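Study this pair:
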Amino acid sequence: MGRIGQAGLILSVLCLSAAPLQAEERQAMKEDNQHVRRWNGFADNLLKLHERLISQQIHVIKTRMGGYAHLANFYKEHQYINKKSGKLISQVQWEKAYPDNLHTIEVYIHDKYGRVIRDYSAAYLPEYRNAPTQTLISFHVYNGLLHAFRSFDATGDHILDRCTGRFNAKAINILLDEDELYEGQFAKNGVMQSDTYKECFKGLPETAGKYLSPQ
């Protein structure tokens, strides 16, 4: 085969090998854009939930300035507290220099006994506002002397299980992160297969479901 033929063959191989990479890059960009829209949308909806809750409850507001080692007084924080129960409804931080920029937000939903049954949060990095770097949807359950919560992110990924309290006269302290949850479901005699784990998380949903839209 001549040089031109060899060059043509090499170019064809390179083009064929590059095509899947380009397709993968396009897919990655598409997924990244979806992630940005979804997580920013979650933060926006969480702010709307906060506004609705404080409009429905008589509350007091506590305000303070806060920041970081290299960014003193970076944000202004408002805590909204139910005046009758003293329970925290929500906590919102805004950038001091850009008051319309949300920094972090936390919102709490309580049951008739004043216990948190659901909480949400979203947080942006101080100097990076493309999308929140953390989003959380946490469900709480109270079984006997146990308090457990299960957390998902705004994509719907199950990222944390936490349980504390007492069961069968023993102190319980379970904490499983995303990797441990994934690996634990395949274990034969792991924590997730134990009676304690089942009692802890009894009644909690397996997915975030409709609560991916804060409510």
